[in-house]
């Protein structure tokens, strides 16, 4: 019978040999059955319970396994044993090259009657605290709280990771902790965090640059064709006729602006070029002016005689003007008619190059219009990949996507297709160009399984939904997927970690963050007037001002306040002044151009006759055909 101390070269890894639990009675591939010995303190106290690590003594190594099932079987009891445990074999501690270390995989399988013991603290440290590895200390081992769990930072980043768990289990705190550790271990890495609920702003102190609609400068011409069409149509299905017009005029508007900037004098000739001959596509990220785009559409509308055809152009121009004049879209359309190639500045702001002590960008998405969020996430993910591609991975970057199931849904009929494709491309090819991906979601079953399967390290926190658990079991290649049985009963801040980033699939407790670094929503009652209490008489007025302010252009707040005060002082109707009138169209277009659409061509006024007429003439102007 094998002795618990029959491996003296391995015994140096521990101060004691560990409590003898039993002996191997059967081996089935990567699993072994253990006959358990009775203990006065109970098997649980001895370490023979579900979720515990044990060691099997062989002639050359200590095999490390995880107990997945414990039962009292009659056959074991008849032989003087108290039960049977089933163990998943995961790795071994061996002496290689004069140093004791742990490695995954089994070189020599156990034999019948090999001794099985509980792992000692020093042996657990050999497994989970390797001294020479570049690891992140993110928490403590559930089996022994004195042992910290190390995560290999290179494997974590290089093969992507995901944090999964339902609401209220400490998922956001775990993400903040992991990112803080990554920034310490990789100071040259750039991080872009898509913060859906504006809750991470205070977690990283002065090391993060917070970007929101108020300070973001993401010009409209950086959006590709699918993204800009989605914005113009507010996330609704686009009209084919209008899309065809845009596909024709956008490349010409780009060429028009390029010709203008180069100092050429043939701008009118460029307007007559075909979209296929100008050298640009609808997706080429070069600047153009919105006025040039509208001018191209207006010019084409003026050449049409069919009223129905003119209406298509009319609607498209109105649509573009409505979106560009909306203050909520100011981050895209500010200076839309000024021009200027600001692509380098936008990339510098988003990807922190140079970092200037702030290697992280937190993109707060809660303040963006709901109908534009998908397109914004799409352009950010797409530009992150393209930047890595065209820079040959010279500036490694980690993109972390909160609520990933919103943007890469398993149901292809839900969400925005370009966003899903951009995230999928990052998951499949990003690592080749130094762009890494971290996904965070509370509904793994709603996330595209192709994308989550690319994440080689998973942190599964408490989840009770059967579909979520089934998806994770199928996504995890590790033989210890039986640990998912623990997921519904995990406590707050607890997780089951799988994959290449951790030495073994294990149950851990994330370290607790200081209170001032915990994620907390920035969007609740920031206004001091709202914090004063809902019973205050000014509460409704404050809410109304903020409500209107979301869709009011800068500089219009004072006229609004004056109107409100005047209405309170005098009950007579108040007529808005010029400050409240709609924004004027681009200077290159005739403000009254749409009035012609209401009249047949034969009834339009003769503009030359109007010029020839005397100003003092009292007779009405003759219309053509009258």
Give a topology summary:
Layout: H1 8-11, E1 20-28, E2 31-36, H2 43-46, E3 53-57, E4 62-71, H3 74-78, E5 83-96, E6 99-104, E7 115-118, H4 121-128, E8 135-141, E9 148-152, H5 153-158, E10 161-164, H6 171-185, E11 190-195, E12 208-211, H7 225-232, H8 240-261, H9 267-271, H10 290-302, H11 307-325, H12 330-333, H13 343-351, E13 360-364, H14 370-390, E14 397-401, H15 417-429, E15 435-441, H16 449-452, E16 457-460, H17 466-475, E17 494-499, E18 506-510, H18 528-531, H19 539-549, H20 557-569, H21 607-612
Parallel strand pairs: 10-15, 10-16, 11-13, 11-14, 12-13, 14-15
Antiparallel strand pairs: 1-2, 1-7, 2-5, 3-4, 3-7, 4-5, 5-6, 8-9, 8-18, 16-17, 17-18
Task: List the quaternary state of the chains.
Answer: single chain
Give the helix level as a range of percent: 25-40%
What is the structural class? alpha/beta
The share of residues in extended strands comes to 15-25%
Globally, the shape reads elongated
Mean pLDDT: 81
User: Uncertain runs with pLDDT below 50, 5 residues or more?
Assistant: 1-9, 11-16, 265-271, 570-588, 593-602, 607-612, 614-626
Largest sheet: 11 strands, mixed
Radius of gyration: 33 Å
Number of helices: 21
Ends: how far apart? 118 Å
| Strand runs, count | 18
What topology, given as strand order, has the largest sheet? Answer: 9-8-18-17-16-10-15-14-11-13-12
């Amino acid at each position: 019978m094998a002795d618990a101390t029959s491996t003296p070269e391995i015994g140096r890894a521990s101060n004691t040999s560990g409590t003898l639990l039993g002996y191997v009675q059967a081996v089935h591939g990567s699993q072994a059955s253990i006959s358990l010995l009775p203990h006065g303190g109970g098997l649980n106290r001895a370490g023979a319970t579900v979720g515990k690590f044990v060691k099997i003594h062989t002639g050359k190594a200590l095999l490390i396994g995880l107990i997945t099932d414990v039962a009292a079987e009659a056959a074991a009891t008849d032989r003087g044993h108290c039960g049977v445990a089933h163990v998943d074999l995961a790795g071994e501690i061996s002496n290689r090259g004069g140093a004791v270390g742990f490695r995954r995989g089994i070189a020599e399988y156990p034999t019948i009657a090999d001794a099985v013991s509980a792992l000692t603290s020093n042996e657990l440290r050999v497994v989970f605290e390797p001294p020479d590895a570049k690891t992140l200390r993110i928490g403590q081992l559930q089996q022994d709280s004195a042992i910290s769990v190390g995560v290999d930072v290179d494997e974590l980043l290089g093969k992507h990771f995901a944090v999964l768990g339902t609401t209220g289990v400490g998922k956001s705190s775990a993400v903040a902790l992991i990112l803080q550790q990554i920034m310490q271990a990789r100071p040259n890495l750039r991080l872009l965090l898509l913060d859906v609920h504006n809750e991470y702003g205070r977690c990283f102190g002065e090391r993060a640059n917070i970007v929101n609609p108020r300070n973001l400068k993401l010009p409209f011409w950086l959006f590709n064709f699918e993204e800009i069409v989605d914005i113009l149509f507010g996330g609704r299905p686009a009209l084919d006729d209008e899309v065809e017009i845009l596909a024709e005029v956008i490349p010409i508007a780009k060429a028009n602006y390029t010709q203008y900037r180069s100092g050429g004098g043939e701008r009118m000739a460029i307007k007559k070029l075909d979209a296929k001959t100008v050298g640009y596509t609808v997706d080429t990220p070069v600047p153009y002016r919105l006025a040039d785009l509208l001018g191209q559409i207006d010019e084409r509308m003026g050449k049409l005689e069919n009223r129905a055809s003119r209406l298509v152009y009319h609607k498209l121009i109105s649509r573009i003007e409505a979106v560009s004049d909306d203050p909520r879209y100011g981050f895209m359309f500010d200076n839309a008619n000024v021009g200027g190639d600001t692509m380098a500045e936008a990339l510098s702001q988003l990807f922190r190059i140079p970092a200037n002590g702030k290697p992280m960008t937190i993109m707060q998405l809660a303040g963006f219009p709901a109908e534009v969020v998908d397109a914004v996430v799409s352009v950010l993910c797409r530009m992150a990949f393209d930047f890595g591609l065209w820079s040959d991975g010279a500036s490694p970057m980690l993109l972390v996507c909160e609520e990933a199931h919103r943007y890469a849904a398993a149901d292809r009929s839900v969400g925005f297709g370009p966003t899903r494709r951009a995230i999928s491309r990052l998951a499949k090819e990003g690592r080749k160009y130094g762009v890494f991906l971290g996904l965070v979601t509370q509904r793994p079953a709603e996330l595209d399984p192709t994308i989550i399967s690319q994440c080689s390290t998973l942190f599964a926190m408490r989840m009770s939904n059967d579909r979520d658990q089934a998806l994770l079991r199928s996504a995890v290649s590790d033989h210890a997927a039986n640990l998912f049985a623990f997921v519904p009963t995990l406590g707050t801040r607890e997780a089951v970690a799988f994959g290449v980033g951790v030495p073994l699939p294990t149950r851990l407790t994330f370290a607790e963050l200081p209170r001032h670094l915990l994620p907390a929503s920035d969007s609740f009652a920031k206004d001091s007037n709202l914090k004063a209490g809902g019973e205050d008489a000014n509460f409704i007025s404050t809410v109304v001002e903020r409500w209107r302010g979301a869709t009011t252009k800068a500089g219009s707040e004072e006229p609004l306040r004056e109107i409100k005060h005047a209405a309170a002082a005098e009950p007579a109707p108040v007529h808005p002044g010029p400050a409240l009138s709609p924004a004027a169209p681009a200077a290159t277009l005739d403000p009254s151009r749409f009035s012609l659409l209401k009249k047949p061509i034969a009834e339009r006024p003769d503009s030359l006759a109007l010029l020839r007429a005397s100003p003092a003439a009292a007779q009405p102007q003759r219309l053509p055909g009258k």
